[in-house]
């Protein structure tokens, strides 16, 4: 018995690529992001989705809501798939972080470093893998949508590919993208990666 997982990165907001939003509140989707979320819902409408799990952050919930509505349910909040805790870097622009030596270390070696006052990428990986295993036990033979964040999705994909966490730069996980994998007692298989859904 296998479970199909659709790992969905939240749709676009107006700070993507400029600010390390992390877990800061009040980061919602703009008009384009809302259109992307509706397109994601249409893309997933034909799948046998048993559950839509979402990070508690606004941009993820706003992405998950139309997907869940498409299958006649409400999204379920799952703290284990929330964004990495970036600690003292939360809310800083990427321009501000450029000269931070600790930021450079983080981006060169995710396996051995952590944000100031935050969590490691390996800790985030353990969270999302735990969430997936829980859903796999609940929904054998069905599909589950997890609406999460780029680095957290990358961490899950790296785990299932058997690759080290420092290989995260080899993967692209765009806003409003779906990465699909099947997980069973025998192991796992990646079916599609970074399928970008355009409105």
Strand count, sense and barrel status of the largest sheet are: 6 strands, mixed
The number of domains: 1
Q: What is the alpha-carbon Rg in Å?
A: 16 Å
Order of helices and strands: EHEHEHHHEHEE
- The named CATH superfamily: Phosphoglycerate mutase-like
Q: In CATH terms, what is the fold-level topology?
A: Rossmann fold
**What's the shape?**
globular
CATH architecture: 3-Layer(aba) Sandwich
Lateral strand order in the biggest sheet: 3-2-4-1-5-6
Helix content class: 25-40%
Our count of helices gives 6
Tell me the distance between the termini: 34 Å
Strand content: 15-25%
Give me the secondary-structure category.
alpha/beta
Count every beta strand, where a strand is a DSSP E run of 2 or more residues: 6
Low-confidence stretches: none
Overall pLDDT metric: 96
CATH class: Alpha Beta
């Amino acid at each position: 018995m296998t479970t199909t997982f659709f790992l969905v990165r939240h749709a676009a907001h107006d700070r993507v690529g400029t600010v390390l939003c992390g877990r800061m509140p009040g980061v919602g989707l703009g008009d384009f992001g809302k259109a992307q979320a509706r397109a994601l819902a249409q893309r997933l409408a034909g799948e046998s989705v048993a559950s839509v799990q979402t990070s508690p952050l606004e941009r993820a919930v706003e992405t998950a809501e139309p997907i869940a509505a498409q299958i006649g349910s409400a999204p379920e909040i799952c703290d284990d798939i929330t964004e990495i805790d970036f600690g003292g870097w939360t809310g800083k622009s990427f321009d501000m972080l450029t000269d931070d030596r600790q930021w450079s270390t983080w981006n060169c070696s995710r396996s051995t470093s952590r944000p100031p006052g935050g969590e490691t990428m390996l800790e985030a990986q353990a969270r999302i893998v735990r969430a997936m295993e829980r859903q796999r036990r609940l929904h054998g033979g069905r599909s589950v949508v997890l609406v999460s964040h780029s680095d957290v999705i990358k961490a899950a994909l790296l785990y299932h590919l058997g690759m080290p966490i420092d290989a995260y730069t080899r993967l692209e996980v765009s806003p409003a993208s779906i990465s699909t994998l099947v997980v069973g007692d025998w192991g796992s298989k990646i079916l599609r990666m970074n399928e970008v859904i355009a409105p």
